[in-house]
Amino acid sequence: MLLFLAGLQSIPNALYDASEIDGANAFQRFRHITVPALRPVTFAVVTMGVIGTLQMFDQVAILGDAAPLASRVTLAYYIYENAFPAGASSRIGVASAAALVLGILTIAVVYVQKSVGVKERAD
Questions:
Q1: What does the alpha-carbon distance between residue 89 and residue 82 come to, in Å, rounded to a whole number?
Q2: Is the dihedral of CA 84, 77, 99, 95 positive or negative?
Q3: Cβ–Cβ < 8 Å for 75, 102
Q4: Helix, strand or coil for residue 114?
Q5: How far is the C-alpha of 114 from the C-alpha of 54, rounded, in Å?
Q6: Do residues 15 and 95 make contact, with C-beta atoms less than 8 angstroms apart?
Q7: 111 DSSP assignment
Q8: DSSP string, 58-91
Q9: Is residue 101 very low, low, confident or very high in pLDDT (cuts 50, 70, 90)?
Q10: What is the pLDDT of residues 23-77, one digit of tens each?
Q11: Residue 46 in contact with residue 121, Cβ under 8 Å?
Q12: SS3 34
């Protein structure tokens, strides 16, 4: 929300004044001025959300053994379990390979989002 607030404050009031003089109503000002001007902020927020989701670890670690079988395993938690196992020898190679896959997956998802979804710059 703080990023959206900063984005809203960066929109010049002259644009809203000019659209009001031209006869635009509130919905038209929102649709044609506010939404396009917030595209870079929306891209940043969505990108950080996707990266945070892919790297989700703490909620799974807190859950512990309460979840049935492997239903709680995310890729970040899988890396942790293999790098630092409880009472067994570590499988650091598997953890390194999974970390590489996580990095490539994150880059791929952000690239797809950038090319298909939310635009990085305002038009």
A1: 9
A2: positive
A3: yes
A4: helix
A5: 16
A6: no
A7: H
A8: HHHHHHGGGSSTTTT--HHHHHHHHHS-SSS---
A9: very high
A10: 999 999 999 999 999 988 988 898 888 888 888 888 777 776 666 666 677 888 8
A11: no
A12: helix
